[in-house]
Design brief:
Length: 581
């Protein structure tokens, strides 16, 4: 089963292809669930690379392209492109492997009996949120409900043990982790869900990994308590240096409106800004790339993306991720019922189904990034949460670099208006992309910068300025749009920009929102003709990282563009929040 929280709280886990053959749409890549590579038979344990190897090597690591991409197939029918990984091999060779770093994996739980995980878990520090009684949460057994392997796979990508002679290894193979059973098929009330959400944001951890999110077919407001908890975490945890919150951006490049309305079979174009709880500077959003060095077919774009990490495709026609799974062929992602490839069915050296080769999604990109951050913190434990973000932005590889305009994915253009751009270079010299953020994370460069890091980002400040009440009509299907400017008097070095938007437009699926800085950089925060079937927003927070390093001083101009005819509305208010130093 794919792990859903109750519809009353509207939370959907970011899906991966499971043994039930459920996945997000592939956006025309041609990958998918097929049986062309299915193999039968279970090899003897003596020939099983998941079993003990006295040499100390991890036999499945050779197929883990995210660790070292040599063009291997990773049990799919085609290989990737050599060199397209996160450059972690040299970091491990230098002796930096994540020692001393603690990761909280809040997910669908984890199988703590897994031989590649059991020596890296934190005994007594796991959590079980399946009960509504808070007294049962801490120290509980996080074993996955209904055999859901998602959290076990996520944990392995970040922190599976290395060089123990079995399976593969994590990006940070000496980091320790706790598994939280936060998502699952269990009853929870709205109030208990809020309490659980707050509890899983706290604790003596360096990194919190969240490979889940809201369905992108609606704009979902966040409670003030959740936002306050994030702010408290980056202010107080890690002895005041701040916890690192890493979150999957989403798998809704092309999503199903049926996630919000079961009778609506149309598609929408996802955006990072539809989940307000992630539209804060305190969260690092990870997009996903595949083994060919391209953005993964499902990865949700948006101005809130910080960096791209690795998530692969679907494991049949091109590589997904090789990682840990629930022990045994009766549950988890690997199963005797799987029809994707032989390895995942329990053959090809996986006779016990302890591993999977079809984990994917930004659910995978997040723990890969968490592993890289664990290496950074292991190399320099004094880094603050802001230092980590700065290093990632400064060292990311500008993959597939271009400043060209992008066509509308569903062929619904607006004359005279560019849908989006691959990258935009801002006035501070940073290249930013709604697709890749600041680029693909590079572990070698990030760890090297972390070791000798001596920058002082100064005192963090936040400033909110409001337009007051407005009544500016948005022209129907017109690139001219509706514009308004706010003057910011302070000269803050920007770390993130948030806007609070109010509009009574009757169909947000038409609407594009862009913001232009005093330096002339324009960020497309919402993209036109997205077909998200909702009307109106009231002081809804959106976020952009495109202005990183620029000065806040001067006029900021918002522009709302209606990309299709038939629905109208007005810009009724907006506010700009400067986050920086």
């Amino acid at each position: 089963m794919s792990p859903f929280l109750p519809a009353t709280v509207l939370l959907l886990i970011i899906l991966t292809l499971s043994s039930c053959n459920q996945s997000k749409p592939e956006a025309g890549t041609g990958d998918g669930d097929d049986t062309s590579t299915t193999q039968s038979g279970n090899p003897d344990d003596a020939n099983d690379p998941t079993t003990d190897d006295s040499s100390g090597e991890d036999p499945l690591a050779a197929e883990a392209w995210h660790l070292d991409n040599r063009g291997q197939k990773s049990f799919s029918s085609n290989g990737g492109k050599s060199g397209e990984d996160v450059s972690v091999k040299s970091v491990h060779a230098s002796g930096v492997k994540g020692a001393g770093i603690r990761i909280a994996v809040s997910d669908s739980g984890v199988d703590l009996s897994h031989p590649d995980l059991q020596d890296n878990d934190l005994p007594g520090e796991h959590r079980d949120y399946s009960s509504n009684s808070s007294s049962a949460w801490r120290g509980g057994n996080p074993y996955p409900i209904e055999g859901e392997g998602h959290g076990t796979a996520v944990s392995g990508l970040a922190a599976a043990e290395g060089w123990n002679g079995i399976g593969s290894r994590g990006i940070a193979p000496e980091a320790k982790f706790s598994g939280f059973l936060f998502i699952g098929n269990f009853h929870t009330t709205s109030s208990s869900y809020e309490a659980k959400s707050l509890d899983q944001m706290t604790g003596a951890f360096d990194i919190f990994n969240y490979s889940y999110g809201y369905a992108g077919c609606a704009f979902v407001p966040a409670s003030s308590s959740i936002i306050s908890a994030y702010k408290s975490g980056v202010t107080n945890l890690r002895s005041g240096k701040g916890a690192i919150y890493i979150k999957a951006v989403g798998n809704d490049y092309l999503g199903h409106n049926s996630d919000c309305n079961q009778n609506d079979f149309s598609y929408f174009l996802g955006n990072s800004n539809t989940g307000e709880d992630q539209n804060v500077p305190y969260v690092i959003l990870a997009a996903a790339m595949n083994a060919n060095g391209k953005i993964s077919s499902y990865s949700t774009p948006g101005s809130g993306v910080w960096v791209a990490s690795l998530g692969g495709e679907f494991g049949a026609n091109s590589p997904a991720m090789v990682t840990t799974d629930i022990v045994g062929c009766g549950s988890g992602i690997s199963s005797s019922l799987s029809q994707v490839n032989g390895f995942n069915k329990g053959g090809s050296g996986n006779s016990h189904c302890d591993y999977t080769s079809i984990m994917n999604g930004t659910s995978s990109a997040a723990p890969v990034l968490s592993g890289v951050v664990a290496l950074m913190l292991s190399a320099n434990p004094d880094l603050t949460w802001r230092d980590v973000k700065h290093i990632l932005a400064a060292t990311a590889d500008k993959v597939n670099y271009s400043t060209a305009a992008l066509d509308h994915p569903s062929s619904k253009p607006l004359s005279g208006y560019a849908y989006d751009y691959v990258y935009v270079k801002n006035a501070a010299g940073y290249d930013f992309s709604n697709t890749y953020g600041f680029g693909r994370v590079n572990a070698a460069k990030a760890v090297e910068m972390a070791k000798d890091y001596d920058e002082n980002l100064g005192t963090y400040k936040e400033e909110l300025i409001s337009s007051g009440a407005l009544s500016i009509a948005i022209p129907d299907r017109s690139a001219a749009g509706a514009s308004h400017s706010i003057n910011v008097a302070s000269a803050t070095s920007i770390e993130a920009i948030q806007i609070k938007l109010s509009t009574n437009h009757t169909f947000l699926g038409d609407l594009g929102v862009q913001l232009t800085s005093p330096s002339g950089t324009t960020s497309r925060i919402l993209l036109i003709n997205n077909n998200i079937k909702q009307s109106g927003l009231s002081e809804y927070t959106l976020l952009s990282n495109a202005f990183y390093g620029e000065s806040s001083k001067g006029n900021w101009t918002i522009k709302l563009v209606d990309g299709a005819s038939g629905n109208t509305g007005k810009l009724t208010k907006w506010q700009i929040k400067i986050n920086g130093h």
